[in-house]
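Section 5.1 Outputs to date
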Amino acid sequence: MKKRLCQLQPLTVPCKLEFLDALAVFVQQASKEADLDYRTSYRLRLAVDEIATNIILHGLSDSLQPSTLTVYAELDDQYLTIHLEDTGSGYNPAEAIPPDKIRGPEQGQKVGGWGIYLAMWGVDEFEYVRMHARNLSKFRVRRPSCGEHRESDS
């Protein structure tokens, strides 16, 4: 299985909410290059957006240094993999509270956790590692097999 980077150049943006749209456009372009159907493309974009939003809102609160998000894509015959890197504090989204343990505010717990769960549900594989003071998140979705027809994008 031969891997290659997408024709898209990696994108680096400041860790600010107003740059989430640029990340979404990148994921949509990579999805198109990978020939993903609408639903798979949407779930991938949603997953990347959720993790990026959490990085911006929660992962940088203890950092006074400006930080960036870098996204790049990799294709092989079976998968599109989106890589998201940041320099915020370490947090593995896969270790979030499982959905069956999430409680509402009526039980005295703070609300949250569903977005991460939905992000993990939306991709075929998710991987997180902390390396060299960077967070590396990988989102993998299966590409359609040769001969498969894409779902309508409508």
